[in-house]
Amino acid sequence: MREKIEKVMKLFWILMCVFTFSVSAESLAQQERVSLNLKDVAVRALFDEIQRQTNLYFVFNTELTDRLGQLSVNVKDETVENVLQQILKGTGLTYKFRGDLIVIQQEDKKEDVKKGKRIVGIVIDENSGDVLPGVTVKLCSESSVALGTATDYQGRFVLTLPVVKGALEFSFVGYETQKMNFTEKTDSLRVVLREKMNELEDVVVTGYQQIDRRHLTAAVTTVKMSDIDVPGVNRIDQMLEGRIPGMTFMQNSGQVGATPKLRIRGTSSILGNQEPLWVVDGIIQQDPVNIDPQQLNDLDFVNLLGNAIAGLNPDDVEQIDVLKDAAATALYGVRAANGVIVITTKKGKVGPPKLSYSLTGTFSTRPRYSDRGVNLMNSKERVDVSRELMERGVRYTGVYNSFTDWIGYEKAYLDYFKYGSISFNDFKERSAYYETLNTDWLDLLCRDVFSHNHSLSISGGNESAKYYASFGYANEEGNIKGEKNERYTASVRVTVQHKRLQMQFGVSGNVQDKTYNPSDLGIMNYAYNMTRAIPLYGEDGELYTYKKGNYPFNIIREMEESDYTINQRNASANAQVQYRFTDAFKLIGTASYSMGTSDDETWYGENSNYILKLKDANSSMTRSECPFGGELKTNSNRSSSYTFRVQADYSKFWDKNKDHFTNASIGWELSSSKYNTTANTERGYLKDRGMTFAALKGEDYSKYPKYFDWVIRNYPKYSKSLTNTTSFYLTLTYSYKDRYIFNVNSRADWSNAFGSRSNEKLFPVWSFSGRWNMTNDVVKNVSWINNLALRVSYGIQGNMQNNQPTQLIINKGGYDSSKGGYISTVEKFPNPDLKWEKTYSFNAGIDFSFLKDKIQGSISGYYKKTVDAFLSKTVCDVNGVTTYVVNSGNVENKGIELSLNFNPINRAVSANGKRGFVWRFDPQIGQTLNKLLNDRIKRKDKTLQDELTLSQFLNGSVQLSGTPLNTFFSFKYAGLDNQGKPTFKDLEADRAEELHEKYKNLSKKDVWLAVLDESGTRVPVLQGGFNNYFGYRSFSLTVNFSYSIGNKIRLLRIASGEYSAVSPKPMQNLRREFVNRWRNPGDEKITDIPALDIEGGQDKGWWNANKYKVEWEPSGSATIYSMYDDSDLRVASGNYLRLQSLSLRYLFPRALAKKLGFSSGYLSLSGSNLFTWCSKDLKGQSPEQSGTSSVVNISVRPKYSLNLNVVF
């Protein structure tokens, strides 16, 4: 009995506590105090001001409150309850407190009470806490008559229901639909909606259409910008790493502003541009500079000029859709063979003005000798190399054969042993000094930097007019001293809706100012290759110099005496007018115009090593090619483009049951793009004297004949490029019961890029595709399958090669006194028979969603074959050119893609808006296999010269049938001999006679295929990522990994370097691997690092001896040491796993945000490129760095960012 009483008492106290807490919460709300001084304002303004000063929300019917007219209130530190009593007295309205909700309603009249229910409420966003206007609220009922309403611009709703118990459904575009129950005791609701972050997006934007994903027959990957945004990363293309299955991402430099290389489903073109097409808001974007596609395709080329979207602010982007197969890209015609990336920017939303501000501060660290990726000798190790060279009697050749040019330890050695100018103690002191010097070139040439990024935007509007405007500024400092990138962006977008007429207008612009060191300086190359055993400053305190090209050189002075600047300005305007004649038919007109300038300058001062060599300062000034001042190289690019498009759309259900649905679009488009380029080099430039030029009179030219000769040979170069295209396109979609969807796309392009044969000016692009929504058919009754659909497509894509004219273009040069006349050269050889490249594409895929969307994803397989691919053929130079583009290549690409989305834990959101624990896991996989199907050179074609070179085999640019593009070859390392020299299979010295007889009658190609081995492709075959999202209450943690598999990397050179073909010169550093080099006979059994070369690069193998020397020379002019660097021993796997980004975010609670002066916001701490796991064989070399490049590029650097984002 006693236990029962105790249980009853405990239950009583619990109920009392709950009741007391509820009453006290409501009482506290009633006692909230405000100070108001408002005159002649609407009641809405009064409620907004009370909300701003408190944590309370108002719910009311605007039809009731608008009758109150204008109000004036002047109170100080008064309770909200008293204020409401004053303003509502005698109005027939009353108020009720429901927690933090205040419901304004009519006073009850007993005679008006009827059976039913009246519910008021407010709907807010889970993340920001902002109210959501336009949310659909409807009663869940089996009745065919839907009863519902929509929230007003303040997120409020009032709904009178015929029942007292049931459920309401809340739905809004971009948010998860939510149901909430109500009973006879419910009179108000506070609803929290969550954005659709865990599902495949509902709408796919192709640029020409917006397609319901349930009707999508094509291969498209959609990502929200909010999902891929990484603070501190200012480029959209860099954010796509590991996010898009089937997209290959390659970043070959960590230099600020360096553009990554992207490939979608392999490489469809060999000579043509291999980059995807960029589209922003339905308009194709063009690159700021018309760079030669072959240069862009070069995997070692570092593009600092940027691509078509380099000036776009990521904060202005809403969604990115990547179109992959023919069904998705056919409407873009011949420019879309490499895939299309469609960017949709932010637009205004219905509601009061929202001002958003984002600030990001980013810290990036420079390379250090202690890094794993910097495996270089210290001073002691490098002096040990010098000591061994001296003791073994090294023989230096070339410009370093003069003992007076020697520096460091070698200079001290000669001063003591050869000249006797110093004592033994002095020699020991100097040796100890150089051994412990350890000059930190990475610190002197690089820096830790702080960058900052600001973005300000405002948006709002009503159903008739919406607007969005933004301004952005990014200051990105480079880790190499003197390098930075500043970007300014601005945009305005307005949408106007009037009955059946909709108009959209947009204006945007950007300014980019970039500063670099000239690429000729090779700053990172210097840091990696310069010995640490020489100082920066000499004993006299002046910069320490050594001879380079017979003239003094110091890298710091060179950086002060040169620079490379890029200044870009771009602006665009677009307009779209849409008129809906009927519910089924609408007409859309689109127009856009863009213009841009890109000016880059390279300057060398008169004290730079580059100019000193031109001056030939060691001889008479008459031999100088630059007698005064320095040199200024300028490239000026002017670009413009326009697009006009008219499109008619027709959509209709053809029966009462809505089983048959048709959507058709037909359109016409006219587009044009133009580039005007001027390139000029001028000497005598005096930058420090007001940026003027030294003036020479006519008679002075006789004093400087070499300079005069240069002047008459050097003249400004002008080039123009104009591409006009007109197109017709058609798309037709049919759906039966939302089960079977069939689609046909077609486009015909006429272009001036192809010439005299009219039938080649036209190229039709088409696709057929279908979709089977099995969840509406055979598995519709399987409860655990939420979505299951099969997609199939087949079509043809095309590509065009620019700068291939139909008529001969002559470059009329200047006067040449040595030849006694004007000089003309063939600029472009006529190519009237060139046809389009054609790519046939097949794609099949399955989209699925299981277990209440806890498991979602898609899997796709594809096969692409390109025929009539552009290839470059060597022709006799009697034509005035040495190469000619022809249609003779066939390329194959095939692969699979897998995109998954797991939601293991996804707790429901409670009514107070607080979140439970959320975990989302998204792995992405994309495999691409690429192969050239026919030889670049046909053995029976005797009219063309043999084009292949050894360097093409070694750097991966060779094109061979049956091998992937970018496949490189290596000499077959066979070990060291008893003298520590490297040997190679099929080039053994003891087989010289046999091999000579074997190789002498073979072509160069066959010899190289015999002595070289295929190492692999430089392009990954499998890439992807897996992303984790954890959320709890106001905190979220995002962890993103990216991986790359299947490519091979040439290791950085250790036996040959920049300053010598083979032997390390006094100023040259070595990789630390050389510490374990061969030193004594027998070491060849324990090491593969060759001995130091004391013969000065004279050993080029037995095949170069006079007895055997023939035209084929299996190693060209290479020595056995450079062959060693190009051997299969020096090849490693390029596989890596990278912690791409890590971000911790704190979402400010609404109450705290109000106290801080804004409505919502968050603070995040993040890092990018934090750590990379890769092959041990790389010996610390970064996977982005390649030994095939002539220079060493800075690796992608880690970044640490703090981001504050607030909304007012």
UniProtKB/TrEMBL annotation:
Task: Please provide the record's keywords in A-Z order.
Answer: Cell outer membrane, Ion transport, Iron, Iron transport, Membrane, TonB box, Transmembrane, Transmembrane beta strand, Transport
Q: Does the keyword Ion transport apply?
A: yes
- Keyword check for Transmembrane, yes or no: yes
Got a GO cellular component term for this one? cell outer membrane
| UniProt-listed InterPro entries | Beta-barrel_TonB (IPR000531), Beta-barrel_TonB_sf (IPR036942), CarboxyPept-like_regulatory (IPR008969), Plug_dom (IPR012910), Plug_dom_sf (IPR037066), Secretin/TonB_short_N (IPR011662), TonB-dep_OMP_SusC/RagA (IPR023996), TonB-dep_OMP_SusC/RagA_CS (IPR023997)
Please give the biological process terms from Gene Ontology that the record holds. Answer: iron ion transport
- Pfam families (alphabetical): CarbopepD_reg_2, Plug, STN, TonB_dep_Rec_b-barrel
Where this protein primarily resides, as one coarse class? membrane
The residue ranges of the Secretin/TonB short N-terminal domain are: 56-107
Gene3D superfamilies in the record: 3.55.50.30, Carboxypeptidase-like, regulatory domain (2.60.40.1120), TonB-dependent receptor, beta-barrel domain (2.40.170.20), TonB-dependent receptor, plug domain (2.170.130.10)
Q: Which cellular compartments is it found in?
A: Cell outer membrane
Q: How does it sit in the membrane?
A: Multi-pass membrane protein
Task: Please give the superkingdom of this protein's source.
Answer: Bacteria
Give the family, as the similarity comment puts it: Belongs to the TonB-dependent receptor family.
Under NCBIfam families, the record lists: OMP_RagA_SusC, SusC_RagA_signa
Q: What is this protein called?
A: TonB-linked SusC/RagA family outer membrane protein
